[in-house]
Specification:
The protein is an alpha/beta fold and 298 residues long. The chain has eleven helices and eight strands. Helix 1 packs across helix 2 and helix 2 packs across helix 8. The two termini are 27 Å apart.
Length: 298
């Protein structure tokens, strides 16, 4: 894997797939970027440059662990842009990685050609995903055989009485998916089927393989000072580049209602709900996902 050095000397790795115009991709987690794969075949249209955030995948663990904080990761995106020799770049973020992408866009608006937010987290902009929004998305799955225990676990988490754990959510009652909480088992594990359009063998394998394994990086991602919602929202209100916000119809992490509210923060935003998809829409319908994103970037 190619690597580059950040201003603080941390060596970071990235994967490059395909040819064509480049798009820099920021994973959620923080987790090994392998879970993104080639984003359903987007690499057939664009050179997808997928970063391993510091302390994940093949990127080095930094000497200063406070640099795991979301706002500090913006410097790593800028260092990657400079390393690639791009005056401007298209930038794609998924889940918790959208927080990093949005903070970068707010700080360096002239260096972003297009911004793609997949299953976006709302923490960077201070929106609220309510329990009712999550229930609405969850109830669309009421005929699934796994629904009763999964929905009971969701209700407990929303009420604040469930156990934390499950791998890849952001915080109890706030976000799930490839976000910023880790652990083993518990309520998060029980609601994992809600994150996929099909809870089959491939989804189970993807869920297991995509869990964050650097608990310190996860814990420090949202530390005090990581987010400045008012300043970020003000910057996004003046952001001139086009933005695509895409979420799955079933995405309990990033429900369509909250993502629609997010889209209203930008002057030039397209909001898309992918039918039959969860939090990883490139897995649930790769052709539809790639067509949507490639058309936007094209």
């Amino acid at each position: 894997m190619p690597t580059f050095s950040t201003p603080d000397g941390t060596r970071l790795a990235y994967r490059a797939h395909g040819d064509g115009p480049p798009v820099v991709c920021v994973p959620g987690g923080p987790a090994d970027s392998r879970y993104l794969g080639d984003l359903g075949g987007l690499a057939a249209h664009h050179r997808t440059i997928v970063l391993d955030l510091r302390g994940t995948g093949r990127s080095a663990i930094p000497d200063d662990v406070s640099s795991y904080r979301c706002d500090r990761l913006v410097d790593d995106i800028e260092a990657l842009r400079d390393h690639l020799g791009l005056a401007r770049m298209d930038l794609l973020g998924h889940s918790a990685g959208t927080n990093v992408a949005v903070r970068y866009a707010a700080e360096y608006p002239d260096r972003v050609g297009g911004l793609v937010l997949i299953g976006p987290s709302v923490r960077a902009v201070g929106l609220t995903v309510t329990g009712e929004m999550r229930r609405e998305a969850a109830l669309l799955r009421k005929d699934e055989p796994w629904f009763p225990p999964a929905f009971a676990a969701l209700e407990a988490l929303v009420a604040g009485t469930g156990t934390t754990g499950a791998g890849t959510g952001e915080e109890t009652g706030t976000e799930t998916g490839t976000g910023t909480a880790t652990g083993a088992g518990g309520g998060w594990e029980a609601i994992a089927p809600f994150l996929y359009g099909r809870w089959d063998t491939a989804a189970r394998r993807h869920h297991a393989d995509g869990r964050p394994d650097n608990e310190e990086a996860v814990a420090r991602f949202g530390a005090d000072g990581a987010f400045a919602p008012e300043a970020t929202r003000a910057a996004l209100a003046a952001f001139g580049a086009p933005v695509l916000l895409l979420t799955g119809e079933f995405d309990l992490n990033s429900p369509p209602r909250s993502t629609a509210e997010y889209a209203e923060l930008f002057p030039d935003a397209s909001f898309v709900v992918q039918p039959g998809a969860g939090h990883f829409p490139w897995l649930d319908d790769a052709d539809r996902f790639v067509a949507t994103v490639a058309d936007f970037l094209g």
